[in-house]
Amino acid sequence: MNNIILETIEYSVYYGKYQALENISMQIPINKVTAIIGPSGCGKSTFLRTFNRMNELIPGVSVGGKALINNENIFDMDVVSLRQRVGMVFQKPNPFPKSIFDNVAYGPRVNGIKDRNVLTELVEKSLIGAALWNEVKDDLTKSAMALSGGQQQRLCIARALAVQPQVILMDEPAASLDPIATLHIEDLIRNLSEKYTIVIVTHNMQQAGRVSDYTAFFYTDQSRTGKLVEFDNTRTIFTNPKDSRTEDYITGRFG
């Protein structure tokens, strides 16, 4: 694969003495959607959180090997500048108890943008990018908490877009949403991948098949240590996997 933006090389994560991930070597291409699938407890979210260093918020965490963005070692970077380049959307919508405008403008303001005209332009552009502008443009002073669950999640995506990242991490972004709101998010993911690299953790096989270009299958045995079993383009993973464990998981024999 050409145009690799994220990469791990023999990457491992430990929570104290417990090893959560073992020797993960993987390359994630730019401006594609990469899905991380696998049974509960196999380290999918731990792997995802590597790329904005959110694992460091957990006491006792340590890592081995390398994790890179554009060939730069993530762990040598200033964490604030890293998180400008790598946005995150969580399982449950987590808007701030502020207005719609202030939610989206929050990141740019933290990064030093004070000019109201610049902020207004960024907010509009981000809400358009998150497919929410037409629904909220007439009342940007409205509390974000008054939006529906699906709208709140799109607002959180707009908030991530506002700092103009290269990568957007999504941890089960539709898990708490109804089917219609889920389809909105899936359509949005496909559209966003034209400009952004997206890495999504999902338990939903159909969702991974619908939205992703590449899929990684993680697995854990009795040791409870997560390992990368297989990584390939999504069509190959779903129709002609190389490992029997991948096939068993995708066909519902376990997981």
Task: Give an overview in words.
Helices cover 35% and strands 27% of the residues. The protein is of the alpha/beta class and 255 residues long. The chain has one domain: Rossmann fold (3-Layer(aba) Sandwich). The chain has a 6-stranded mixed sheet, sandwiched between helices. The longest helix is centred in the middle third of the chain and has 14 residues, at 116-129. The relative contact order is 0.19.
Could you outline the blueprint of secondary structure elements for this entry?
Elements: E1 4-15, E2 18-29, E3 33-37, H1 44-50, E4 61-69, E5 72-73, H2 79-85, E6 86-89, H3 100-110, H4 116-129, H5 133-136, H6 149-161, E7 167-171, H7 179-192, E8 197-201, H8 205-211, E9 214-220, E10 226-233, H9 234-239, H10 244-250
Parallel strand pairs: 3-8, 3-9, 6-7, 7-8
Antiparallel strand pairs: 1-2, 1-4, 4-5, 9-10
Helix pairs in contact: 3-4, 3-6, 4-6, 6-7
CATH superfamily: P-loop containing nucleotide triphosphate hydrolases
- Poorly predicted runs: none
Query: What is the oligomeric state here?
Result: single chain
The percentage of residues in β strands lies in: 25-35%
Going across the biggest sheet, name each strand in turn: 6-7-8-3-9-10
Structural class by secondary-structure content: alpha/beta
Helix content: 25-40%
- Please tally the helical runs, counting DSSP H or I stretches of 4 or more residues: 10
